[in-house]
Amino acid sequence: MTENNRSQWDAGRFVKTLAYFEVIPFISCLKRLFSGNTKYHKSNQSRGKRLGKILVAGATGGVGKRVVRRLRERDYPVRALVRDTQRGREMLGNEVELFEADITIPETLTPVMMDGISAVICCTGVRVQPVEGDTPTREKYYQGIKFYMPEVVDSPEIVDYQGIKNLVQVAAHHLEPGNQLIFDFKHPSDDVKETWGAVDDVVMGGVSESSIRLIDQAALFSGTVSTKNSGGFVSVRTRNFDSPLNLAGYEGMELRVKGDGQRYKFILRTESRWDGISYCYSFDTEKDTWINVRVPFEALIPVFRAKTLPDAEPFDPSHIYAVQLMLSKFEYDGALNPNFEPGTFSLQVKTIKAYNGSTLPQFIMISSAGVTRPGRPGINLEEEPPAVRMNDQLGGILTWKLRGEEAIRESGIPYTIIRPCALTEEPGGKGLAFEQGDNIRGKVSREDVAELCLQALEQPQACHVTFEVKEAETGSPNWHHLFSSLNSDDTDFSEST
């Protein structure tokens, strides 16, 4: 539609806009009811957890499948690394994205595997027979190595060291410490598709019209902007998050965009009100060129209806209710946008992320208690678990796990290395005890180890630590206290005493 023809204000679109953003909740509810979409939920982007997909390696194993289940229960998007897609689908269900690869074959670990991934939980390892079972002594379970696939001759060296090293190398090229992925339009989740909607100048009598849609691994914000009827802006905005997004500790947000040479605005809202204060940042695009745009929180301008508010409260990154992109003929306080042109426009967005924040663990490895004990001077083997006593007979299973740990520590990736004592099939929910120095013995449920992996994802204190864990007599774990009690691996404590 040409500029001359776009002069009729659309009252119906005005009502639809208000209904979509639940400014008119009753109408919005009726719309979902009659469309059959009764399962709509607001975006999960704000639940205080790490955003972006979690890659689970060893996802069909005893701990791995429990990690996947718990991640899904808490609405984390998951990519499961499996050797056999059919078997993975049978075990993990249809809700989990599968990626077929083998950590022992580097060629299968392609960069696509890491697209959109914010952290890796590695539950791989050579298995002993039977896969899941327990007796007081467990000796009969260490009759020999059980290989993952009959046609592949695995060994502790190949899986627990070389395989881990392969996985770490590909992860190190893609993970970004200190960054938090907010929206990944290259690999959007279902809730992202239902989060964004248009807010154009129709809300004030104008006739401009825009939309946002997913195309070519990006979100395309496009349409036509008109100055008819005193209008002149288009925008797309998220529905309010269920609870405010907390980005305290980050310096700002970064957008990966390709535009048309015009100047756009990036807007954050710290109020749940529809027409409250917005915090704005203008940025120029380069025509048909992908660029990174950094928006420092300290550079955000408080604005109400295009007028700046010098006395407004500073931007609070701990309470972000909505995100918005805008093209407007105005800058602020009546000044014109120097790069504005009425007519068609186009802005593509691949990702929106927070940058320079607190570092969280990005590679969590399930290792084993006892990895430093084989060959330790003065050790009493009769008091040690079977894996320590039979390390040589089992192909050096603990020795190679220790080498795998070392590959992670040397990678530069923020990591957490968990060394569980004897794994059991008992129910979870028990108290836990953490220790360092590799001296403890005991048992711990696979369920509790899976929960421990999820808790470590969001604990800055869990970065660069290695620790043993066993079941304790206490009640439910106090996670903050447990992780705060740990020493960083940079601390000078001995693992051989």
Radius of gyration equals 27 Å
Major sheet strand order: 3-2-1-4-20-21-25-23
**Can you count the helices?**
10
What's the count of strands? 25
Global morphology: elongated
Q: How much helical structure, as a percent, in the residues?
A: 10-25%
Q: What percent of residues are in strands? A: 25-35%
Low-confidence stretches: 1-5, 24-48, 129-153, 492-497
Oligomer designation? single chain
Structural class based on helices, strands and sheet pairing: alpha/beta
End-to-end C-alpha gap = 78 Å
How would a crystallographer describe the biggest sheet? Answer: 8 strands, mixed
Query: What is the average per-residue confidence, as pLDDT, rounded to a whole number?
Result: 84
Topology:
Layout: H1 11-20, H2 25-35, E1 53-57, H3 64-73, E2 78-82, H4 85-92, E3 97-100, E4 117-122, E5 127-128, E6 145-146, H5 156-172, E7 180-184, H6 190-193, E8 196-198, E9 209-215, E10 218-225, E11 233-238, E12 252-258, E13 263-269, E14 278-284, E15 290-296, E16 301-304, E17 307-308, E18 322-328, E19 343-355, E20 363-366, H7 386-389, H8 397-409, E21 415-420, E22 422-424, E23 431-435, E24 443-445, H9 446-457, E25 465-472, H10 479-484
Parallel strand pairs: 1-2, 1-4, 2-3, 4-20, 20-21, 21-25, 22-24
Antiparallel strand pairs: 5-6, 7-19, 8-11, 9-10, 10-19, 11-18, 12-15, 12-19, 13-14, 13-18, 14-16, 16-17, 23-25
Task: Describe what this molecule looks like in 3D.
Helix content is 19%, strand content 27%. It has ten helices and 25 strands. It has helices spanning 11-20, 25-35, 64-73, 85-92, 156-172, 190-193, 386-389, 397-409, 446-457, 479-484, and strands at 53-57, 78-82, 97-100, 117-122, 127-128, 145-146, 180-184, 196-198, 209-215, 218-225, 233-238, 252-258, 263-269, 278-284, 290-296, 301-304, 307-308, 322-328, 343-355, 363-366, 415-420, 422-424, 431-435, 443-445, 465-472. An eight-stranded mixed beta sheet has the order 3-2-1-4-20-21-25-23, sandwiched between helices. The protein has a seven-stranded antiparallel beta sheet with strand order 8-11-18-13-14-16-17, with no helix packed on it. β2, α4 (85-92) and β3 form a beta-alpha-beta unit. The longest helix is centred in the first third of the chain and has 17 residues, at 156-172.
